[in-house]
Please model this.
Amino acid sequence: MSLLRIYCPLREPPLRCQWTLLGDGEPISAEGPLAQLPRHAGRVQLVIPAAQVLFTRVRLPGAGRRLSGAMLAFAVEEDIAGEPDSIQASWLGPAGDADAVAVVDRDGLTRWLDALDGIGIGTREVHCETLLLPWTAGEWSLAWDGREGYVRTGEREGAATDRGDRTVPPLSLRLMLEEAQARGTRPPAIAVFTTVPDAAPDVESWQRELQVIVRPAGAWDWRTAPPRAGPSLLQHRQRWPGFSGLLQRLRPAAWIAGTALAIHAAALVTDWALLAGERRTLLQRMEQRFRSAFPDAVAVVDPALQMRRKLADARHIAGLPDGGDFLPMIEKAAGGLRDLPAGSLRTVSYENGRLTLEFTALGEPAVQRIVAHLQQAGLGVDRGGETAAAARAGSRAVIITARPL
Model:
């Protein structure tokens, strides 16, 4: 897979850049306008200069490691000179007993990302050249151009140095060694990589000043770093080519689906309104008929129920039985009880037009036959659970309640 590596100084406008293309053959490196960058690389890495990335340690809770860059910016507020809103902070991983966080200028990074988006380069990783340096556990790595450089102090940590020369190492490097000694992590050696020809320091002079072994490690360039070198400060997901422009192609279908759903919803609302109007009309007619038959009624809440009760009262006054009386109901129920085993019917009770039958040792097919018979006889049927007495006796009881419709 080919790799396009772009050097992005965040403090400069995104007009020109240095770049290198790594693939199966020899690397291709050049410098020029962004519009001349190679296209269709399998991976794209943005390399930020070491001096424009701050690495710091903070103690974060377990959930804090999943914070967004905006929230992490406030966690490192004490270690930065600017406002949290102006930086992009990225959690890199654990570093000793704390967490390593990288901080870059948000506005500068956004300008470069937008500029690359504008020319169609949207899949990328963001790296710092500090963490591209080769590094071995137990020693530090220093990139040196004869006057200044940057040092990688750990897998996820490093810093830029101030000025020095061939015989005098940078003061900031000495201070970093003293701080590491206070933490008990002072390295026994520093590997020095030169980034320009004839930049190697005087090893003996540096060793006397720093009190550590200084060993030349050869020439190094960010262009030739391995493709998997160093952790990324920011990951952008790759867009699958098959989905490119999919939203634009589906927009007409989405409009059609939305219109169909709107029409369907309007039809449902209209149908519901018509049914509600019919229900109100039926209730009004029932109430009118009830009042015409019983003009002395004070209030009409349920015309059908009240009409049924008035009809039952009139039959009782005339000495006629009503369908909700005990005798008519037990007569209707008796037809479905003829084939039951002896002793299956435990109790029969009646109250306010409701006939309750309690059965014991009755199978489900027999229960379903009884329910079907009662429904065919014009009764409403409800099945209940066990009674308290049956539960205490340990017997399975089935309760069926019948009522007139």
